[in-house]
Specification:
Membrane topology: Single-pass membrane protein
Shape: elongated
Structural class: mainly alpha
Oligomer: single chain
Subcellular location: Endomembrane system
Protein name: SANT domain-containing protein
Strand content: under 5%
InterPro entries: DnaJ_domain_protein (IPR052606), Homeodomain-like_sf (IPR009057), SANT/Myb (IPR001005), SANT_dom (IPR017884)
Order of helices and strands: HHHHHHH
Organism: Perkinsus olseni
Radius of gyration: 55 Å
Distance between the termini: 164 Å
Length: 222
């Protein structure tokens, strides 16, 4: 009958369908699994590649940092060496200039001494000892006997004036005592003001006499 025929035909077809469906599903699942594995492998490879790039970048940055530090250190060292070289060169030039000035001064002093000897062989040593550096250099280029005669007279006269200025009159001592009280220690430009107050002595003479008076006063108190 048709129903029996349909029943007998249905079950084999159904079995075939189920078998095909099962195989198809397994194939689909296998393909999906293979795709998932492939995708996972691709992700792993991509992550590995990214990690490798990051590691290489970190290594490159560290290397660049080390090279930069080495360059900076080298530049600092070169700057230090350059400054040291410049200082040494400046010091060498200063010493050379000082030596040249010393030689020029000694030569000038020798020329002045020879000229002074011709004018006054007895007084030239004393006159020469009282000449400062500028005077030696100035007179070394002067020619003419009269200039050195004037120089000797000027120096000897200056010695006499110094001897005269060393003597103190009673009036000067009184004015000095008054000035010392008027301008006590700690006063700005004290000795200049005292010199101007006296008007007849140098600061050197005033300081020497003030020390002498102070020593006498201290001796009396003892």
């Amino acid at each position: 009958t048709p129903s029996l025929f349909n029943t007998l035909l249905f079950w084999p077809l159904r079995s075939l369908w189920l078998l095909w469906s099962s195989r198809h599903e397994r194939r689909r699942l296998r393909l999906m699994e293979e795709k998932a594995v492939a995708a996972a492998e691709e992700r792993a490879k991509a992550e590995e590649e990214q990690a490798r790039h990051r590691a290489e970048e970190r290594l490159r940055l560290r290397q660049a940092g080390r090279e930069r530090k080495m360059r900076e250190q080298q530049l600092r060292q070169e700057a230090i060496e350059q400054r040291t070289k410049e200082k040494a060169e400046a010091e060498r030039e200063r010493l050379q200039q000082k030596a040249a000035e010393r030689v020029a001064y000694l030569e000038a002093r020798e020329r002045v001494a020879e000229k002074l000897k011709m004018v006054d062989a007895n007084a030239y040593r004393e006159v020469l000892s009282r000449m400062d550096r500028e005077e030696v250099l100035q007179y070394s280029n002067i020619s003419g006997e009269q200039a050195f005669v004037d120089l000797i007279q000027e120096k000897l006269k200056g010695d006499e004036e110094e001897d005269d200025s060393a003597e103190w009159s009673e009036e000067e001592l009184a004015k000095l005592t008054k000035a010392l009280s008027k301008y006590p220690g700690g006063t700005r430009d004290r000795w200049t003001k005292i010199r101007e107050f006296l008007g007849t002595k140098t600061e050197k003479d005033i300081i020497a006499k003030a020390d002498e008076l102070k020593s006498r006063l201290y001796s009396r108190k003892r």
